[in-house]
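fwd from M.: "can u put these together and see what the complex looks like"

so here's what she sent:
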Amino acid sequence: MGEEVRFSDYDDRVPEWELGLPTSDELPPLSQPLITPELASAFSISPEPYRTAGDVARASEITFSGLRGQYSSKLVNNYNSFDNSRSAEFDVEEIDADRNDSRKAETIKRQRLVWTPQLHKRFVDVVAHLGIKNAVPKTIMQLMNVEGLTRENVASHLQKYRLYLKRMQGGGASEANDHLFESTPVPPSLKESSVRSGSGSGSGNVSGHVPMHYGAQMVPMPMPMPLPVYGQMSGYPGFEYGMMQQKDWSGNKFDAVNSYQRIPQCDK
DNA sequence: GTATGAATAT
DNA sequence: TATATTCATA
């Protein structure tokens, strides 16, 4: 407990140190194993457990609190609690993975995707900017740029979304409770007749017309979104809020909203 | 051969 | 119901 170097003394110099460092977008996510499970098993390396956004966020929190209170015993406690919660969450999955491994080494079990409102918004944004013509699963998937998201995931969701659009332009507006779909308003560009050149109706966006006959390449809209599987700072730089707000970034709130949810799956 | 989308399965 | 998987076909 001698010379105490307070972390806050350096807080204002951190941005200076960070100059030239890769941004979070350029780094592999913490939740992503460095080697694939197949490779790991091929070389008899015990595979890393999956890490949820919550796990990464908690670990980060521990790191930060550890840095701030170097000499407090908090760190130990936090570690313990982290370990406990983590193992509780992982146990099933690891067992499942082992079982899966023993029966067939190749098949990777993917968790059932849960379309959170955030994910769905991302989906709708991309579809809107592609136009109905180009909004096909592969392209959507690429533009959404969400790690772990498969073409099948998107195809399935797209199928449902199309049905929703059809149903809502035809029938009464509020028939069923599609909570998810209603969470993100349908962009005007998706309302059936795409060919409404000239005076586009006021689509909230001041930027107005979006000439999107282009391919998937240059679309300006989709900022790379951190995958839902891990805790990164936060989604859309430039959209939701300014990016310097890492303070609220810790913990549960984040992963509750912005992560895959793991649903134990029975083996077939 | 891949990608799509409707149908079907879980 | 929500998501996954299958399958005909483009």
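replying to her w this: Residues 117-168 of chain A form a domain with the Arc Repressor Mutant, subunit A fold (CATH 1.10.10.60).
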